[in-house]
Amino acid sequence: MIEILKSVELIEFMKELKNDFNLKKGDVSFLNSHYPTIEKVKEWKYATGPIFDQPPYSAELAGFDPGRLLKKRYLTPFEARLKGTYSSGFISGAHVVTISPSKPIEIPIMATFFSTNGTSVDAINIQYPNNDSYNSNKPPRLIGMRRIFDFQDSIRACIIVGERDAYSIDLFYLDGNGLVDSVSMVSAPYDFQSNCKFNYDSDGQLMSVTSNGIVWQRS
Predict the structure, then answer these.
(1) pTM flag (> 0.90)
(2) Which end of the chain, N or C, is more open, meaning fewer C-beta atoms within 10 Å of its C-beta?
C-alpha cells in the first residue's frame, strides 16, 4: 500500500484544495450561488443516512450503519431534515445535493453539493442560516470541500479539507471486479496511517470492514 504521508503528489493535492478552501470560505456570493440548486431539484430521495454521497462506505469506515432508502415522502427536504431524515436531490438522474438532518428549525441547513466531471467528483459542504424555512441575517458558512478522483490504476483518492486546518486523505483500492478491496486513511491531527480490509460474500455484498479487529459488520 502507498504510504500516504510520503506521497508528494497527494500532499500537494491536499495543499491545493486547502488553498481553494481558504480563498472561498469568505466569498459569500460564491457560497450563496450554490443554494439555487436546491430549488431546482424536482426529484428527492429520502434515507436514514447519506447513502448516495461520495466517497462510498464513509459510514462503514467509521463503524456506523450506512442507512437505508425510505419509502416515506415529505412535502419538502426542509420538512425531512427536521424529522431526522437525509434528503438527496437529483437533476437529470445525477446526484447534486444532500441535505442533512438538523433541528430545531433555527439551526442552519447543512447542504453538500456534488458535481461530476468524468471520473472526478467535487463536493462542497455549506451551512445556510438563512434558508427557505428560517430567516437569518447570518451569512452562509463553508464547512468543507472534498475531491474524489482516479489517483493510480485501480486506486481512487478522496481528499477532504475543512475548518481549523482539518484534512483527510483516503485511498480506495479496487479489485478486478471494481469492488473496494481495502482503504488507507490519514487525517489531521494524527500522523499515522490506518488500513481497512473489505470482506464480501459470494454475491459481492459487503459483510464487514476489518482493521486489527472488526470496524463494521453487517447485522
Answers:
(1) yes
(2) C
